Amino acid sequence: MAVCARLCGVGPARGCRRRGAAREQRRGAADSEPDTDTDPEEAGGGGGVTEDDEVAERIEGGRPLPPAIEAAPAGRAPLSLLELPPELLVQIFGSLPGTDLPSLARVCTTFRRILRTDTIWRRRCREEYGVCENLRKLEITGVSCRDVYAKLLHRYRHILGLWQPDIGPYGGLLNVVVDGLFIIGWMYLPPHDPHVDDPMRFKPLFRIHLMERKCATVECMYGHKGPHNGHIQIVKKDEFSTKCNQTDHHRMSGGRQEEFRTWLREEWGRTLEDIFHEHMQELILMKFIYTSQYDNCLTYRRIYLPPSSPDDLIQPGLFKGTYGSHGLEIVMLSFHGRKAKGTKITGDPNIPAGQQTVEIDLAHPLQLPDIENLRDFSELSRIVLEVQEQVRREEQEREQQQQQEEEQHSQQAACQPASPLGGEGVEGEETAAGAEGTTQDKAPASQPFVLPMGVISRNEDYPRTCRICFYGTGLIAGHGFTSPERTPGVFVLFDDDRFGFIWLELKSFSLYSRIKVSFQNAQAPSREAFDEMLKNIQSLAT
Questions:
Q1: What's the CATH number for 83-152?
Q2: 112, 45 in Cβ contact below 8 A?
Q3: pTM for this one?
Protein backbone atom coordinates (compact mmCIF):
# COMPACT_ATOMS: atom_id res chain seq x y z
CA MET A 1 0.00 0.00 0.00
CA ALA A 2 2.83 2.40 0.87
CA VAL A 3 4.58 1.79 -2.43
CA CYS A 4 1.38 2.14 -4.38
CA ALA A 5 0.72 5.37 -2.57
CA ARG A 6 4.14 6.73 -3.43
CA LEU A 7 3.64 5.87 -7.10
CA CYS A 8 0.24 7.50 -7.25
CA GLY A 9 1.26 10.55 -5.22
CA VAL A 10 -0.89 9.95 -2.13
CA GLY A 11 -0.13 9.19 1.50
CA PRO A 12 0.66 5.79 3.01
CA ALA A 13 -2.99 5.05 3.83
CA ARG A 14 -6.38 5.50 2.17
CA GLY A 15 -7.41 8.10 4.76
CA CYS A 16 -4.43 10.39 4.23
CA ARG A 17 -5.47 12.01 0.96
CA ARG A 18 -6.19 15.41 2.63
CA ARG A 19 -2.84 15.74 4.34
CA GLY A 20 -1.23 14.18 1.29
CA ALA A 21 -2.08 17.28 -0.74
CA ALA A 22 0.08 19.46 1.46
CA ARG A 23 2.93 16.96 1.27
CA GLU A 24 2.65 16.87 -2.53
CA GLN A 25 3.33 20.60 -2.66
CA ARG A 26 6.58 20.06 -0.77
CA ARG A 27 7.52 17.04 -2.92
CA GLY A 28 6.52 18.59 -6.22
CA ALA A 29 9.95 20.03 -6.88
CA ALA A 30 11.68 16.76 -5.99
CA ASP A 31 9.39 14.68 -8.20
CA SER A 32 10.09 16.87 -11.19
CA GLU A 33 13.88 16.78 -10.91
CA PRO A 34 15.32 15.22 -14.04
CA ASP A 35 17.47 12.09 -14.09
CA THR A 36 20.62 11.93 -16.19
CA ASP A 37 20.53 8.21 -17.11
CA THR A 38 20.24 7.38 -20.82
CA ASP A 39 20.88 3.61 -20.95
CA PRO A 40 17.76 1.44 -21.40
CA GLU A 41 19.29 -0.86 -18.81
CA GLU A 42 18.91 1.93 -16.26
CA ALA A 43 15.59 3.29 -17.46
CA GLY A 44 13.76 1.40 -14.77
CA GLY A 45 16.23 1.92 -11.95
CA GLY A 46 17.70 -0.87 -9.87
CA GLY A 47 16.80 -4.51 -10.21
CA GLY A 48 15.61 -7.21 -7.88
CA VAL A 49 12.24 -7.71 -6.24
CA THR A 50 11.35 -4.36 -4.66
CA GLU A 51 8.23 -2.69 -3.42
CA ASP A 52 7.83 -1.21 -6.88
CA ASP A 53 7.52 -4.75 -8.29
CA GLU A 54 4.41 -5.08 -6.15
CA VAL A 55 3.05 -2.08 -7.99
CA ALA A 56 3.73 -3.82 -11.30
CA GLU A 57 1.95 -6.94 -10.08
CA ARG A 58 -1.08 -4.93 -9.06
CA ILE A 59 -1.11 -3.17 -12.43
CA GLU A 60 -0.70 -6.40 -14.38
CA GLY A 61 -3.14 -8.30 -12.21
CA GLY A 62 -5.84 -5.70 -12.64
CA ARG A 63 -6.22 -4.94 -8.95
CA PRO A 64 -7.43 -1.38 -8.33
CA LEU A 65 -4.90 1.23 -7.27
CA PRO A 66 -5.74 4.10 -4.95
CA PRO A 67 -6.58 7.23 -6.90
CA ALA A 68 -3.80 9.79 -7.33
CA ILE A 69 -3.93 13.14 -5.63
CA GLU A 70 -3.10 14.70 -8.99
CA ALA A 71 -6.19 13.19 -10.60
CA ALA A 72 -8.15 15.82 -12.46
CA PRO A 73 -11.49 16.89 -10.94
CA ALA A 74 -14.59 15.52 -12.56
CA GLY A 75 -15.43 17.28 -15.77
CA ARG A 76 -11.90 18.61 -16.35
CA ALA A 77 -9.38 17.08 -18.72
CA PRO A 78 -5.96 16.20 -17.22
CA LEU A 79 -3.46 19.02 -17.58
CA SER A 80 -0.41 16.76 -17.12
CA LEU A 81 0.62 13.12 -17.64
CA LEU A 82 1.14 12.97 -13.89
CA GLU A 83 -2.64 13.33 -13.46
CA LEU A 84 -3.28 10.11 -15.45
CA PRO A 85 -3.80 6.78 -13.65
CA PRO A 86 -0.65 4.59 -13.45
CA GLU A 87 -2.39 1.82 -15.43
CA LEU A 88 -2.84 4.21 -18.35
CA LEU A 89 0.74 5.47 -18.11
CA VAL A 90 1.97 1.87 -18.30
CA GLN A 91 0.03 1.41 -21.54
CA ILE A 92 1.34 4.69 -22.97
CA PHE A 93 4.95 4.04 -22.03
CA GLY A 94 4.74 0.48 -23.33
CA SER A 95 3.79 1.75 -26.79
CA LEU A 96 6.95 3.86 -27.09
CA PRO A 97 10.21 2.55 -28.61
CA GLY A 98 12.50 1.12 -25.99
CA THR A 99 15.28 3.51 -27.01
CA ASP A 100 13.07 6.45 -25.99
CA LEU A 101 12.35 5.18 -22.48
CA PRO A 102 15.68 6.27 -20.92
CA SER A 103 14.91 9.87 -21.87
CA LEU A 104 11.45 9.45 -20.37
CA ALA A 105 12.98 8.15 -17.14
CA ARG A 106 14.91 11.41 -16.77
CA VAL A 107 11.73 13.48 -16.62
CA CYS A 108 10.90 12.74 -12.98
CA THR A 109 11.11 10.03 -10.35
CA THR A 110 7.44 9.10 -10.85
CA PHE A 111 8.08 8.18 -14.48
CA ARG A 112 11.21 6.34 -13.43
CA ARG A 113 9.25 4.24 -10.95
CA ILE A 114 6.61 3.39 -13.53
CA LEU A 115 9.29 2.32 -15.99
CA ARG A 116 10.26 -0.43 -13.54
CA THR A 117 7.05 -2.21 -14.50
CA ASP A 118 7.96 -5.37 -16.41
CA THR A 119 4.79 -5.16 -18.50
CA ILE A 120 6.36 -2.28 -20.43
CA TRP A 121 9.55 -4.16 -21.21
CA ARG A 122 7.76 -7.41 -22.01
CA ARG A 123 5.82 -5.55 -24.68
CA ARG A 124 8.97 -3.92 -26.10
CA CYS A 125 10.71 -7.32 -26.31
CA ARG A 126 7.74 -8.74 -28.19
CA GLU A 127 7.07 -5.86 -30.59
CA GLU A 128 10.67 -4.84 -31.38
CA TYR A 129 12.40 -8.22 -31.40
CA GLY A 130 9.61 -10.77 -31.79
CA VAL A 131 10.24 -12.49 -28.44
CA CYS A 132 7.13 -14.62 -27.99
CA GLU A 133 8.42 -16.77 -25.13
CA ASN A 134 6.67 -16.72 -21.76
CA LEU A 135 8.88 -14.09 -20.17
CA ARG A 136 7.20 -14.61 -16.79
CA LYS A 137 9.36 -17.73 -16.42
CA LEU A 138 12.34 -15.44 -16.07
CA GLU A 139 11.18 -14.51 -12.58
CA ILE A 140 12.47 -17.87 -11.37
CA THR A 141 16.03 -16.93 -12.31
CA GLY A 142 15.66 -13.38 -11.06
CA VAL A 143 16.01 -11.91 -14.56
CA SER A 144 13.47 -9.25 -15.53
CA CYS A 145 12.17 -8.38 -18.98
CA ARG A 146 14.02 -5.09 -18.62
CA ASP A 147 17.24 -7.08 -18.20
CA VAL A 148 16.49 -9.09 -21.35
CA TYR A 149 15.81 -5.93 -23.33
CA ALA A 150 18.75 -3.87 -22.07
CA LYS A 151 21.50 -6.45 -21.55
CA LEU A 152 20.72 -8.82 -24.43
CA LEU A 153 18.45 -7.49 -27.17
CA HIS A 154 19.39 -3.81 -27.11
CA ARG A 155 23.08 -4.39 -26.49
CA TYR A 156 23.51 -6.82 -29.41
CA ARG A 157 20.95 -5.30 -31.78
CA HIS A 158 23.69 -4.17 -34.17
CA ILE A 159 24.66 -7.74 -35.09
CA LEU A 160 21.15 -8.84 -36.12
CA GLY A 161 20.76 -9.51 -39.86
CA LEU A 162 22.80 -11.04 -42.71
CA TRP A 163 26.59 -11.21 -42.74
CA GLN A 164 29.36 -12.57 -44.92
CA PRO A 165 32.26 -14.19 -43.03
CA ASP A 166 35.78 -13.40 -44.17
CA ILE A 167 36.98 -16.92 -45.05
CA GLY A 168 39.23 -16.10 -47.97
CA PRO A 169 37.69 -17.00 -51.36
CA TYR A 170 34.96 -19.18 -49.82
CA GLY A 171 32.87 -16.57 -48.01
CA GLY A 172 29.60 -17.71 -46.48
CA LEU A 173 26.16 -16.59 -45.28
CA LEU A 174 25.49 -15.93 -41.60
CA ASN A 175 22.04 -14.98 -40.30
CA VAL A 176 21.91 -13.58 -36.75
CA VAL A 177 18.41 -13.76 -35.27
CA VAL A 178 16.54 -13.53 -32.00
CA ASP A 179 15.43 -17.09 -31.24
CA GLY A 180 13.36 -17.22 -28.09
CA LEU A 181 15.51 -15.90 -25.26
CA PHE A 182 18.69 -16.38 -27.31
CA ILE A 183 20.49 -14.49 -30.05
CA ILE A 184 21.88 -17.15 -32.40
CA GLY A 185 24.21 -16.89 -35.37
CA TRP A 186 23.16 -19.49 -37.97
CA MET A 187 25.53 -20.36 -40.80
CA TYR A 188 23.48 -21.19 -43.91
CA LEU A 189 24.86 -23.92 -46.17
CA PRO A 190 23.65 -24.92 -49.66
CA PRO A 191 22.11 -28.38 -50.05
CA HIS A 192 24.34 -31.23 -51.12
CA ASP A 193 25.49 -31.14 -54.72
CA PRO A 194 23.74 -31.33 -57.17
CA HIS A 195 20.30 -31.09 -55.48
CA VAL A 196 19.80 -27.39 -56.08
CA ASP A 197 16.06 -27.43 -55.34
CA ASP A 198 16.51 -28.90 -51.86
CA PRO A 199 16.14 -26.54 -48.87
CA MET A 200 19.15 -24.83 -47.28
CA ARG A 201 21.00 -26.43 -44.40
CA PHE A 202 22.08 -24.45 -41.36
CA LYS A 203 24.12 -24.90 -38.20
CA PRO A 204 24.71 -22.62 -35.19
CA LEU A 205 28.09 -20.91 -34.85
CA PHE A 206 27.45 -18.95 -31.65
CA ARG A 207 24.70 -17.97 -29.26
CA ILE A 208 24.15 -15.23 -26.67
CA HIS A 209 21.82 -15.51 -23.71
CA LEU A 210 21.22 -14.06 -20.26
CA MET A 211 22.27 -16.58 -17.62
CA GLU A 212 22.07 -14.10 -14.77
CA ARG A 213 21.33 -10.44 -14.21
CA LYS A 214 24.91 -9.22 -14.52
CA CYS A 215 25.60 -9.58 -18.24
CA ALA A 216 24.90 -11.70 -21.31
CA THR A 217 26.93 -14.85 -21.97
CA VAL A 218 28.52 -15.56 -25.38
CA GLU A 219 29.04 -19.21 -26.29
CA CYS A 220 30.79 -20.79 -29.28
CA MET A 221 28.78 -23.60 -30.87
CA TYR A 222 31.47 -24.87 -33.24
CA GLY A 223 32.52 -28.50 -32.93
CA HIS A 224 30.75 -31.53 -31.50
CA LYS A 225 31.28 -31.10 -27.75
CA GLY A 226 28.50 -28.64 -27.03
CA PRO A 227 28.53 -24.89 -26.28
CA HIS A 228 31.65 -23.39 -24.72
CA ASN A 229 33.12 -20.02 -23.83
CA GLY A 230 33.30 -17.43 -26.64
CA HIS A 231 33.60 -13.70 -27.24
CA ILE A 232 32.04 -11.16 -29.60
CA GLN A 233 33.53 -7.79 -30.46
CA ILE A 234 31.66 -5.19 -32.51
CA VAL A 235 34.50 -3.69 -34.55
CA LYS A 236 32.47 -0.93 -36.22
CA LYS A 237 28.99 -0.25 -37.53
CA ASP A 238 28.80 -3.00 -40.17
CA GLU A 239 31.50 -5.35 -38.93
CA PHE A 240 31.97 -7.64 -35.93
CA SER A 241 34.19 -10.56 -34.98
CA THR A 242 33.82 -13.75 -32.95
CA LYS A 243 36.48 -15.61 -31.02
CA CYS A 244 36.45 -19.02 -29.37
CA ASN A 245 38.22 -19.18 -26.00
CA GLN A 246 38.20 -23.00 -25.83
CA THR A 247 39.33 -24.34 -29.22
CA ASP A 248 40.01 -27.78 -27.70
CA HIS A 249 36.23 -28.30 -27.97
CA HIS A 250 36.67 -28.25 -31.77
CA ARG A 251 39.09 -31.20 -31.82
CA MET A 252 38.08 -34.86 -32.11
CA SER A 253 39.65 -37.84 -30.45
CA GLY A 254 40.42 -39.42 -33.82
CA GLY A 255 42.55 -36.47 -34.90
CA ARG A 256 42.45 -34.62 -38.22
CA GLN A 257 41.35 -37.68 -40.18
CA GLU A 258 38.18 -38.06 -38.13
CA GLU A 259 37.55 -34.31 -38.34
CA PHE A 260 37.94 -34.42 -42.13
CA ARG A 261 35.57 -37.38 -42.54
CA THR A 262 32.98 -35.66 -40.34
CA TRP A 263 33.34 -32.37 -42.24
CA LEU A 264 33.06 -34.18 -45.58
CA ARG A 265 29.80 -35.87 -44.58
CA GLU A 266 28.35 -32.53 -43.42
CA GLU A 267 29.65 -30.48 -46.36
CA TRP A 268 29.14 -32.91 -49.24
CA GLY A 269 26.96 -35.70 -47.85
CA ARG A 270 29.43 -38.40 -48.96
CA THR A 271 32.84 -39.91 -48.32
CA LEU A 272 36.04 -39.22 -50.21
CA GLU A 273 35.88 -42.71 -51.72
CA ASP A 274 32.54 -41.81 -53.31
CA ILE A 275 34.15 -38.91 -55.21
CA PHE A 276 35.97 -40.39 -58.20
CA HIS A 277 36.98 -37.13 -59.89
CA GLU A 278 40.58 -36.44 -58.87
CA HIS A 279 40.35 -32.66 -59.41
CA MET A 280 37.23 -32.54 -57.24
CA GLN A 281 39.06 -34.42 -54.46
CA GLU A 282 41.85 -31.84 -54.56
CA LEU A 283 39.37 -28.97 -54.32
CA ILE A 284 37.62 -30.58 -51.34
CA LEU A 285 40.88 -31.19 -49.46
CA MET A 286 41.99 -27.63 -50.18
CA LYS A 287 38.75 -26.18 -48.80
CA PHE A 288 38.94 -28.26 -45.62
CA ILE A 289 42.54 -27.24 -44.91
CA TYR A 290 41.84 -23.55 -45.63
CA THR A 291 38.59 -23.20 -43.68
CA SER A 292 39.97 -25.10 -40.66
CA GLN A 293 42.28 -22.17 -40.01
CA TYR A 294 39.24 -19.99 -39.17
CA ASP A 295 37.62 -22.19 -36.51
CA ASN A 296 38.76 -19.98 -33.62
CA CYS A 297 38.30 -16.41 -34.94
CA LEU A 298 36.13 -14.95 -37.68
CA THR A 299 35.27 -11.48 -38.94
CA TYR A 300 31.86 -10.74 -40.48
CA ARG A 301 30.74 -7.91 -42.75
CA ARG A 302 27.11 -6.92 -43.21
CA ILE A 303 25.28 -7.67 -46.43
CA TYR A 304 21.83 -6.51 -47.54
CA LEU A 305 19.14 -8.14 -49.60
CA PRO A 306 18.72 -6.37 -52.95
CA PRO A 307 15.90 -3.79 -53.18
CA SER A 308 13.07 -4.66 -55.55
CA SER A 309 11.08 -2.71 -58.12
CA PRO A 310 7.79 -3.46 -59.94
CA ASP A 311 9.75 -3.36 -63.23
CA ASP A 312 12.14 -6.17 -62.20
CA LEU A 313 12.12 -9.28 -64.35
CA ILE A 314 11.62 -11.42 -61.23
CA GLN A 315 11.91 -10.82 -57.51
CA PRO A 316 15.61 -10.25 -56.66
CA GLY A 317 17.15 -12.19 -53.83
CA LEU A 318 19.44 -15.07 -52.90
CA PHE A 319 19.81 -18.19 -55.06
CA LYS A 320 21.81 -21.40 -54.82
CA GLY A 321 23.51 -22.52 -58.04
CA THR A 322 25.65 -25.32 -59.45
CA TYR A 323 29.32 -24.60 -60.17
CA GLY A 324 30.81 -27.83 -61.50
CA SER A 325 33.43 -29.44 -59.29
CA HIS A 326 33.10 -26.60 -56.76
CA GLY A 327 29.61 -27.78 -55.81
CA LEU A 328 26.70 -25.51 -54.96
CA GLU A 329 27.28 -21.84 -54.19
CA ILE A 330 25.12 -18.92 -53.03
CA VAL A 331 24.53 -16.04 -55.47
CA MET A 332 22.67 -12.74 -54.99
CA LEU A 333 20.59 -11.60 -57.99
CA SER A 334 19.99 -7.84 -58.20
CA PHE A 335 18.63 -5.52 -60.90
CA HIS A 336 20.26 -2.27 -62.02
CA GLY A 337 18.19 -0.68 -64.79
CA ARG A 338 19.01 -2.44 -68.05
CA LYS A 339 21.37 -4.85 -66.30
CA ALA A 340 20.98 -7.71 -63.83
CA LYS A 341 23.91 -8.91 -61.76
CA GLY A 342 24.68 -12.14 -59.97
CA THR A 343 27.15 -11.60 -57.09
CA LYS A 344 28.75 -14.51 -55.28
CA ILE A 345 28.08 -14.71 -51.54
CA THR A 346 30.04 -17.96 -51.34
CA GLY A 347 32.91 -18.63 -53.72
CA ASP A 348 35.80 -20.86 -54.71
CA PRO A 349 39.52 -20.54 -55.53
CA ASN A 350 38.73 -19.60 -59.15
CA ILE A 351 36.00 -16.98 -58.62
CA PRO A 352 36.02 -15.86 -54.96
CA ALA A 353 33.06 -14.68 -52.92
CA GLY A 354 32.15 -11.06 -53.65
CA GLN A 355 32.84 -11.23 -57.38
CA GLN A 356 30.16 -10.68 -60.02
CA THR A 357 29.74 -14.13 -61.51
CA VAL A 358 27.16 -13.28 -64.21
CA GLU A 359 25.80 -10.10 -65.82
CA ILE A 360 22.59 -10.11 -67.86
CA ASP A 361 21.87 -7.57 -70.59
CA LEU A 362 18.11 -7.07 -70.31
CA ALA A 363 18.13 -4.87 -73.44
CA HIS A 364 19.18 -7.82 -75.63
CA PRO A 365 16.76 -10.76 -75.44
CA LEU A 366 17.59 -13.88 -77.45
CA GLN A 367 15.22 -15.69 -79.74
CA LEU A 368 16.11 -19.36 -79.40
CA PRO A 369 15.80 -21.66 -82.43
CA ASP A 370 13.29 -24.51 -82.53
CA ILE A 371 13.90 -27.45 -80.27
CA GLU A 372 15.74 -29.52 -82.90
CA ASN A 373 18.16 -26.77 -83.88
CA LEU A 374 18.63 -25.85 -80.22
CA ARG A 375 20.33 -29.21 -79.68
CA ASP A 376 23.07 -28.04 -82.05
CA PHE A 377 25.65 -26.17 -79.96
CA SER A 378 27.12 -24.42 -83.00
CA GLU A 379 23.71 -22.92 -83.84
CA LEU A 380 23.27 -21.50 -80.34
CA SER A 381 26.86 -20.25 -80.36
CA ARG A 382 26.27 -18.47 -83.69
CA ILE A 383 23.20 -16.64 -82.29
CA VAL A 384 25.00 -15.55 -79.13
CA LEU A 385 28.14 -14.36 -80.92
CA GLU A 386 26.04 -12.28 -83.32
CA VAL A 387 24.42 -10.53 -80.35
CA GLN A 388 27.83 -10.10 -78.75
CA GLU A 389 29.06 -8.31 -81.88
CA GLN A 390 25.91 -6.16 -81.89
CA VAL A 391 26.50 -5.19 -78.25
CA ARG A 392 30.12 -4.31 -79.04
CA ARG A 393 29.09 -2.04 -81.95
CA GLU A 394 26.43 -0.32 -79.84
CA GLU A 395 28.97 0.37 -77.09
CA GLN A 396 31.36 1.88 -79.63
CA GLU A 397 28.59 4.04 -81.08
CA ARG A 398 27.60 5.24 -77.61
CA GLU A 399 31.20 6.12 -76.79
CA GLN A 400 31.62 8.02 -80.07
CA GLN A 401 28.30 9.82 -79.59
CA GLN A 402 29.20 10.72 -76.02
CA GLN A 403 32.57 12.05 -77.15
CA GLN A 404 30.94 14.15 -79.89
CA GLU A 405 28.35 15.54 -77.47
CA GLU A 406 31.10 16.50 -75.03
CA GLU A 407 33.00 18.30 -77.79
CA GLN A 408 29.86 20.12 -78.97
CA HIS A 409 28.97 20.99 -75.41
CA SER A 410 32.39 22.46 -74.75
CA GLN A 411 32.19 24.51 -77.97
CA GLN A 412 28.70 25.82 -77.12
CA ALA A 413 29.76 26.62 -73.58
CA ALA A 414 32.29 29.09 -74.97
CA CYS A 415 29.50 30.96 -76.83
CA GLN A 416 26.42 30.62 -74.60
CA PRO A 417 25.36 29.11 -71.27
CA ALA A 418 24.52 25.44 -71.39
CA SER A 419 20.86 24.44 -71.18
CA PRO A 420 19.97 23.05 -67.75
CA LEU A 421 17.66 20.51 -69.38
CA GLY A 422 19.03 17.01 -69.92
CA GLY A 423 16.04 15.66 -71.80
CA GLU A 424 17.88 13.65 -74.43
CA GLY A 425 19.62 11.33 -71.97
CA VAL A 426 16.45 10.72 -69.96
CA GLU A 427 14.44 10.13 -73.11
CA GLY A 428 17.00 7.58 -74.31
CA GLU A 429 16.80 5.68 -71.04
CA GLU A 430 13.02 5.66 -71.12
CA THR A 431 13.04 4.46 -74.70
CA ALA A 432 15.38 1.62 -73.82
CA ALA A 433 13.22 0.64 -70.86
CA GLY A 434 10.13 0.81 -73.06
CA ALA A 435 11.78 -1.35 -75.70
CA GLU A 436 12.68 -3.90 -73.05
CA GLY A 437 9.11 -4.02 -71.80
CA THR A 438 7.78 -4.38 -75.36
CA THR A 439 10.14 -7.29 -76.04
CA GLN A 440 9.02 -9.07 -72.90
CA ASP A 441 5.37 -8.50 -73.75
CA LYS A 442 5.88 -10.06 -77.19
CA ALA A 443 7.77 -13.05 -75.78
CA PRO A 444 5.69 -16.24 -75.45
CA ALA A 445 4.52 -17.29 -72.01
CA SER A 446 6.72 -20.39 -72.32
CA GLN A 447 8.79 -22.10 -74.95
CA PRO A 448 10.47 -25.51 -75.16
CA PHE A 449 14.02 -25.67 -73.86
CA VAL A 450 16.76 -28.26 -74.00
CA LEU A 451 20.50 -28.03 -73.50
CA PRO A 452 22.60 -28.33 -76.65
CA MET A 453 24.62 -31.48 -77.16
CA GLY A 454 27.98 -31.30 -75.47
CA VAL A 455 26.93 -28.85 -72.72
CA ILE A 456 27.66 -30.35 -69.30
CA SER A 457 25.16 -29.97 -66.47
CA ARG A 458 25.59 -31.14 -62.87
CA ASN A 459 21.83 -31.45 -62.61
CA GLU A 460 20.01 -33.16 -65.46
CA ASP A 461 16.66 -32.44 -63.83
CA TYR A 462 16.41 -28.91 -65.24
CA PRO A 463 13.09 -27.45 -66.52
CA ARG A 464 12.19 -28.28 -70.12
CA THR A 465 10.36 -25.00 -70.74
CA CYS A 466 11.49 -21.40 -70.26
CA ARG A 467 9.93 -17.95 -70.36
CA ILE A 468 12.61 -15.84 -72.01
CA CYS A 469 16.37 -15.74 -72.65
CA PHE A 470 18.84 -12.84 -72.61
CA TYR A 471 22.40 -12.30 -73.71
CA GLY A 472 24.82 -12.19 -70.81
CA THR A 473 28.42 -12.60 -69.77
CA GLY A 474 29.99 -14.88 -67.18
CA LEU A 475 33.21 -14.39 -65.24
CA ILE A 476 35.84 -17.15 -65.56
CA ALA A 477 39.39 -17.26 -64.19
CA GLY A 478 42.26 -19.58 -63.38
CA HIS A 479 43.09 -20.88 -59.92
CA GLY A 480 43.71 -18.02 -57.51
CA PHE A 481 41.54 -15.68 -59.62
CA THR A 482 44.25 -15.37 -62.25
CA SER A 483 43.56 -13.99 -65.75
CA PRO A 484 39.87 -13.19 -65.13
CA GLU A 485 37.73 -12.45 -68.18
CA ARG A 486 34.07 -12.09 -69.05
CA THR A 487 32.85 -14.54 -71.68
CA PRO A 488 29.51 -14.64 -73.56
CA GLY A 489 26.64 -16.80 -72.37
CA VAL A 490 22.87 -17.25 -72.26
CA PHE A 491 20.65 -16.31 -69.32
CA VAL A 492 17.59 -18.59 -69.26
CA LEU A 493 14.58 -17.62 -67.12
CA PHE A 494 12.52 -20.70 -66.26
CA ASP A 495 10.05 -19.32 -63.71
CA ASP A 496 9.87 -16.93 -60.75
CA ASP A 497 12.21 -19.08 -58.65
CA ARG A 498 14.64 -20.67 -61.13
CA PHE A 499 17.00 -19.52 -63.85
CA GLY A 500 20.04 -20.90 -65.63
CA PHE A 501 23.18 -19.74 -67.40
CA ILE A 502 24.94 -21.43 -70.33
CA TRP A 503 28.71 -20.76 -70.32
CA LEU A 504 29.63 -20.97 -74.00
CA GLU A 505 33.39 -21.13 -73.57
CA LEU A 506 33.20 -23.74 -70.82
CA LYS A 507 30.34 -25.63 -72.49
CA SER A 508 28.67 -25.96 -69.11
CA PHE A 509 25.31 -25.07 -67.58
CA SER A 510 24.56 -23.65 -64.12
CA LEU A 511 21.09 -24.03 -62.62
CA TYR A 512 19.97 -21.60 -59.90
CA SER A 513 17.09 -22.02 -57.46
CA ARG A 514 15.73 -19.39 -55.07
CA ILE A 515 16.54 -19.60 -51.35
CA LYS A 516 13.08 -19.52 -49.78
CA VAL A 517 13.93 -18.16 -46.35
CA SER A 518 12.41 -15.04 -44.81
CA PHE A 519 15.44 -13.13 -43.54
CA GLN A 520 14.77 -10.42 -40.96
CA ASN A 521 16.78 -7.17 -40.47
CA ALA A 522 18.31 -7.65 -43.94
CA GLN A 523 16.73 -4.89 -46.02
CA ALA A 524 19.01 -2.17 -47.32
CA PRO A 525 18.18 1.30 -45.95
CA SER A 526 18.49 2.69 -49.50
CA ARG A 527 19.53 1.80 -53.04
CA GLU A 528 22.75 3.74 -52.50
CA ALA A 529 23.57 1.70 -49.38
CA PHE A 530 23.05 -1.54 -51.30
CA ASP A 531 25.26 -0.44 -54.21
CA GLU A 532 27.95 0.63 -51.76
CA MET A 533 27.76 -2.78 -50.07
CA LEU A 534 28.26 -4.53 -53.44
CA LYS A 535 31.32 -2.40 -54.16
CA ASN A 536 32.79 -3.12 -50.74
CA ILE A 537 32.50 -6.91 -50.89
CA GLN A 538 33.85 -6.93 -54.46
CA SER A 539 36.85 -4.78 -53.53
CA LEU A 540 37.61 -7.08 -50.57
CA ALA A 541 37.46 -10.11 -52.87
CA THR A 542 39.79 -8.47 -55.36
A1: 1.20.1280
A2: yes
A3: 0.79
